[in-house]
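User: Second chain of the day. Same drill as before.
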Amino acid sequence: MNTLGNLSPDSNDSAFNHMKSDYQYPDWYNARTHKFYKKLYRRINDLVEVHNASSNYYAKMQKYIFGPSIMITCLSGIGSFLSTSDLVEEKSQNAFGITVGVLTSISTLLQSLGSAYRFSAKEDAHRMAAEEYNKLGVKLKFEMEMPNEEDFADNLEAQILDIQNKCNYFAPQHIVEQIRRKKCKHHHARKRLENVNMINEDEDEPLLNSSVSQQNTEHVEQHTLDDEENGEENGEDTVLNVGNNGMIHEV
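Assistant: Same format as last time:
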């Protein structure tokens, strides 16, 4: 059962009829503040991408270390059982014993590397940082659309510093460079698209945008173009008239 009633804007509720169509921004929210928020929003999105990629990278490295270690531990247990079984010959028992010792040493080495590089801790730290920056991006987006906190920038600065203090690990340099190249590529592509749009706008203008229309004269320029097909068959030229409106028509 709907106890809230019909809240559709299409209804005849008087509250919607008296609402203003334009949102009135506060006096303290100016163009410079909006520009700063836009730059900060792009920066936060970049940080989300960097920390998310770093978390995925360290999670992959964690699998490369502990995945083989788990498999080696399993094989060591099987080999240890076979080395003490009476169903296996004595020479095979000795071989299984040596193999178990080697596999145990390799497993210990992999676990030591994983503990030394702390891939699991780095993965969790970057994942938490990405989630926190994503939350800040959502809050900043709302503040850009409908600002209602005058000290929002100060609070946002404190939250960003708190996130950086919690994440004590730097992002891998190759991930930072990869995202930087990706941004540069998108920037150049956008610039090329803007240049193409400008060229297309210029091509849409009249062919003659010169003093002919400015002087309001009836002067018509005749241009003679050789028509290859008619020239070969009839030996005649095609005469085109260019009028004041910039349109070309054949005589």
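Confidence is low (pLDDT under 50) at residues 1-9, 205-251.

User: Great, on to the next one.
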